[in-house]
Amino acid sequence: MKTVLILALPALALSDAARAETIELSKIDRKTELHIQRGNTKQSVQCFAYILKDFQDRKIRKSDIYVTFDDPNIDGIGVGIAETDENYTCEAGELRAWEAGEYRAVKRF
User: What is the tens place of the pLDDT at every residue in 17-29?
Assistant: First the structure.
């Protein structure tokens, strides 16, 4: 069962790929952004941009969006909104919405 953790964890060393990183979107710097892009497939990066655009259109603050990457349980990027049940992953060429440990494919890339 895959889940996206929505926790405010401090940024850990990027070289420690065995640990999942969960970072507030507003705290992602250019170096971390490049790490996320290089460490994921083109489809996952496109998916990530798509969901972030959706959040921007919905006027969700960057400080309320958490991004999970380098997680051995997610073959891609996890995204969620603090204090909600909105959790998504960008995996296997699709955007997945998660609820109660189950996902629903929302869009393919």
Answer: 456 889 999 999 9
